[in-house]
Amino acid sequence: MSYYTLYRKSSLGQALDKALEELVDKQLISDELKISVLEQFDESISNALSDKLSNSITFKGHCKVFKQPAPTVRNFYLDNTKFKLDNGEVNVDYVNIVACEAQDKTVAKKGGVSGGVDKNKKKKLAPPKGKKRKM
Question: Which of 37, 88, 116, 117 is spaced 20 to 30 Å from 71 by Cα?
Fold first, then answer.
């Protein structure tokens, strides 16, 4: 089963990649081992986020750009966004959200994405009102 690689862009994922690259440069590990470790990171971080987190969050902001670079991926670039958490609110000037659909319910549980996609009820998400899709 494959997992999303988007967590590699987090500060933790970048630090891991940098450390692994240094080991490859010093010829202490192979490129194949580096790839294997990163794939294990993808699985572990997805499982940890889906199993350990139970907080809910809502947010509201001004959608500057909506992109759909792939059929199951959506990018939202929001300005002046307010996040409401269980224990308070956080305001941010700018946020980039990458949303990925799950293939089925088993991927949703394993990949940290809530809900599965029923192939019979699959809907295309429309861009926000007044915005056009950028391809």
Answer: 37
Token code pair at residue 121? 């009820």
* Predicted confidence (pLDDT) at residue 98 exceeds the cutoff of 60: yes
pLDDT of residue 127: 55
Question: What mean pLDDT comes out for the span 29-52?
Answer: 89
C-alpha to C-alpha distance for 74 and 120, rounded to whole angstroms: 20
**Token pair for residue 120?**
């019979």
| Residue listed under structure tokens 């966004």 | 81
| Cα distance between residue 89 and residue 125, in whole Å | 27
- Coil vs helix vs strand at 5: coil
Contact between 13 and 7 (Cβ < 8 Å): yes
C-alpha 123 chain-centroid distance: 20
Q: Which residues lie below 8 Å from residue 122, measured CB to CB, with a gap of 6+?
A: none
